[in-house]
Write a structure and sequence with these properties.
six-stranded mixed beta sheet, elongated, single chain, 180 residues, alpha/beta
Length: 180
């Protein structure tokens, strides 16, 4: 009786393994491989996936005294960034660019996105006033024309280009850190 009973138990365990565990293991492996290749990404997540960036002309209120120096510095910061690829802003947008002209401007940003697949545009503006210098950086999505992040310093007392460039580097880091 015991030998027959053991044989029946071995057959049952073998059948259970073949019909239940093997298909389950195969299904879980196929589900795992599908999950890695067919990711579900929300529209919000897709809009925050920034890989290709353009830099708008850096502007100021003092006849481009600062803007002409800070623009190339900002381009260099984006070029050195390992997360982003720098692309050139289309000339028709760059030549007509004014402070704030890209904010909520879906038409212009759609043109930027369509022409060169740019995900976002980094803008910079400096204002020299009586209380010091104010510098503002923004990153604007070309998908929905919304400001994704902004970094700003106000009442900065330095006025030498190298001091302002050092502040620009800090602001750029803050801008990147504030992105979701």
């Amino acid at each position: 009786f015991c030998a027959g009973h053991n044989l029946i138990m071995k057959i049952r365990i073998g059948l259970f393994t073949i019909f239940v565990l093997v298909p389950f293991a195969a299904f879980s492996q196929s589900a795992a491989s599908n999950a890695s290749t067919n990711r579900l990404v929300s529209a919000v997540d897709e809009s925050l996936n920034i890989k290709r960036v353009a830099v708008a002309p850096f502007t100021d209120n003092v006849s481009q005294i600062y803007g002409s120096k800070l623009g190339p510095s900002l381009v260099e910061l984006v070029q050195k960034d390992q997360q982003w690829s720098l692309l050139e802003l289309p000339k028709e947008i760059a030549t007509s660019y004014r402070v704030g002209s890209l904010n909520n401007n879906r038409a212009a940003l759609s043109l930027v996105r369509a022409n060169q697949s740019i995900d976002a545009v980094v803008t910079g503006h400096l204002v020299q006033g009586q209380r010091g210098i104010q510098i503002q950086l923004q990153i604007i999505s070309t998908l929905d024309a919304q400001v994704l992040a902004q970094a700003e310093i106000t009442d900065f007392k330095g006025f030498e280009i190298n001091e302002v460039q050092a502040e620009l580097r800090t602001l750029f880091k803050n801008l990147k850190d504030s992105l979701p």
